[in-house]
Fold this sequence. Notes:
The protein is an alpha/beta fold. Helix content is 30%, strand content 19%.
Amino acid sequence: MLTYDVLISAGHEGRPASCAHFPQHHCNLGAAGERAWTPIVADAATRILREHGVSVVRLPADFAGKYRVGAAVFIHFDGSNPPCRSSASVGYAHSTDATAAAAWHRLYGRYWPFGFQLDNFTRGLREYYAYSQVQARDGSLVLELGEITCPAQRAWLAPRLQLEGALLANFLSERIGKGHVPNAQAFPVQASPKSRQNERR
Ligand SMILES: [Zn+2]
């Protein structure tokens, strides 16, 4: 059992190469463009947390071993066909994670203008393949940060991947009570004038 403050896994990162080693994971490659974005958010959150003295194990989609951590997040963006039928969402396996899920709704909901699906609304969220590899004292969550296949949501997300990382770093630091990462409002929002038009539906 490996021990860290925080575990951050970038959804679909490393696939399809890693799939051969983890046939039980079913090798979902994610929505179009998702695999390029999840590592950007994961790296941003990891960098900020480490700058604040938080130990982070930064993992791709498929990894071996078991981890004991304060908090864990598995970063994703949803896909939908037809598009724009989904939004952000949260998945978890334990009723004790519901507190962490509620805290993420409160934080992300202050920024994210497109709402949330119900927690655990898909089997992928309810029964995420990596839950069994992680014991997280203060919450283990799959976070779908928005629907990448919906043009309006994608346009909002595209200039904000660094902000997403900053929000996650602040969230995780608060969950574990370590690092005192400032609120993401301290970080500049680099929104282009064009994407601002999509902020409100
Ligand atoms: Zn995904």
